[in-house]
Amino acid sequence: MQAHNCKPLDDFIEYPPEEMSKRAQDWYQQIKRRHSIRQFSERVVPQNIIETCIKSAGTAPNGANHQPWHFAAISSPEIKRQVREQAEQHERRFYGGSAGDQWLNALKPLGTDAQKPYLETAPWLIAIFSQKKGGVEATDKQQNYYIHESVGIATGFLITALHNAGLATLTHTPKPMSFLSKICRRPDDERPYMLLVTGYPASDATIPLHALKKKRLEEISSFL
Ligand code: IYR
């Protein structure tokens, strides 16, 4: 590693092993309370909370530090209505057969269907876009690298930041999603990656039991 153009790492915090172990446990207890929900309250969430969570997402590791993402945060009732209308149109085709039996059968235990009222009920929809071209400056138009990995990690950071702030989320991926580019007025070299719904859960919000079946540590890991 070349030493030029670097500064000392001065914000790393080392914890004693016992504290590290406790922090790891505490974090697991926090994050295991994150659930995708589909019933949102209309309660308003201030924009500054969403802004700070997007700033957290923007710290994600990514290819060549080009930060190949854009977050379009929608609270306008009219734009949310348009998103719902278009998403439901695509979902009706999806559930009407275009998904294929295998996919539809895999979704049965979740109980989802083409109706997406939460796209209007929730106070915020965050449309996440990936950028094919960019650079470390927002105006750059160089090639971007590891775009999906980068935007995927940033989306994970965003979900985690929102959960930590005390908000519920739903990752929504209508198929196809290209209508989001138009609604959000995004340029041609960006692709919609995911729609994140966020806000307070409705008082009667539920979690599908299917979603609670988490694989055990031994099933998801190996130690060599
Ligand atoms: N986009 C559809 C279908 C859907 C697909 C998967 I994979 C899910 O985990 C959940 C839903 C919908 O939102 O209903």
From TrEMBL:
MF term (GO), any: oxidoreductase activity
Pfam short name (any one): Nitroreductase
Residue ranges of every copy of the Nitroreductase domain listed in the record: 31-200
InterPro entries in UniProt: Nitroreductase, Nitroreductase-like, Nitroreductase/BluB
Highest taxon listed in the record's lineage: Bacteria
Keywords noted in UniProt: Flavoprotein, FMN, Oxidoreductase
Presence of the UniProt keyword Aminoacyl-tRNA synthetase in the record: no
Name of this chain's protein: Oxidoreductase
